[in-house]
Amino acid sequence: MSTPAQDAQGAGAPAAPHAQGGIHASLAPLPPFSQFIDPATAAPRWRRWINRLDHYFHATRETDGTVKRSMMLHVGGDELFDLFEHLPEKGGDNDYDAAVTALNKYFDPQLNPNYEIFMLRQAMQTQGESVDVYYTRLRRLASTCTGIDHGSEIRAQIIQGCRSSTLRKLILR
Questions:
Q1: Which of 56, 106, 127, 169 has a CA-to-CA distance to 10 between 20 and 30 Å?
Q2: Contact, 92 vs 46, CB < 8 A?
Q3: Domain spans of the chain?
């Protein structure tokens, strides 16, 4: 049975069981992870999701492996929990790092390198998007690409996809 404070936080909110207000109450809930939304993007979405959860643990100073593992499986939702139950080499109940490693091993082979490079090369600067924001978006897209020179690919995509002809000329000099 949940307490009124737990009900107020919402089912998707990762919060330490001992949290009473403070930073825990001010953090936005992390949605459950769904591998089925778009299987082609499951690997990068998983990396982003687990990174956000790790930032939550850092912000709340949570270090207990048992608590972190339990919270990951609870907040991750039914799909993640069911998947995790059938993974090999997932460590003991107190081994958060082994649990994350097992999930990484599951999702990483689903990363399609050709698709990731395609997405990078299709990224065009949008109307109203600053060059800095565009560059950051390209870096994020390149981070999932393997077998390429990230710097060269990003530079080539800025030349190809930026809206500023002045910037394009400057880079091509």
A1: 106
A2: no
A3: 39-111, 113-172
